[in-house]
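Sequence in, structure out.
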Amino acid sequence: MKKLCVFLSGMAICGAAQAELLVTQGVKGTLSVQYEYSSVGNKPDKYEPKEWRVQRTFKLVVPMKADLPSPAPALHAMDAAFTKDIEKKKGQMKDLHQTMAPAMDEMMKIAARCDEDEACIERAIKEYSTTMDKSTIEKGKAQATAASTMGAPRYQVWQPVSQKGTYEVDEIYRGQTSDPLCVNKPNQRCTREEIRKGGGAIPPPAGAKDGSIALIEVDSVNKDIMIRLPAPMNTLTYTRQVKSDFPDEKSGTTSEILPFMHSDQKPVTFALPGDLRGASGTQTFKVNGAGGEGGTMKVTWQFAQQ
């Protein structure tokens, strides 16, 4: 079958447009991202007033390396020109298959007749090649070249190599209730205070290396950068301390899991004023939720090409 592969590969010419790379494949860089979530508020209520102050900070550092530039996007949406070119190449491949169909059929017959006998395959190919229409061969080569020739490199993906990070939790919640069972309390109200504290290094996934979901793609035509932001790759914990005389609630200290509040966000796109040696950006958005779970997330990122 090796002879068949050599013969068939000789029927096509795979062309690739040469273009200057955005950066050399393998160049290194570092993506640094800081998430700052905050929520400060209160709920005035005659019977059950509440107040809270929440601050959560996540800092992630992701060493990255550049892939080979490509004419096709990985994160960016395909524009109209690229989509049109893809459809055109599909038609060219269909034409190529039609042109080469008789030769492919003959190759399959040779393979079946010779049954892996290399000498037999070689003799049969030589005999068949003397009977082939040379114009068909040239037509197939031209069609293969047109179908396989890609446009100039436009995009470049940066892949994560590893990931490190830290986090910090500093939260306090206070509340009161005028439950009938609190009638003997000061002001006829029960009170509670909940303090959440925690932080330190973000641990890697159990039994795994420091992986990352981060990804960067540069569009050299539109001069922008699209970033799939990193996230902690393991659960984060904090200490929850409750002091309460609410009915049916006990005071005490427990260890809880901290939700990461950016995991459902789409990749973000920023314009590049220059090259990648000091690209940076900031995004602020609202997080829906009641009490301390509804606030503002500020994302600050910086990418430094080495």
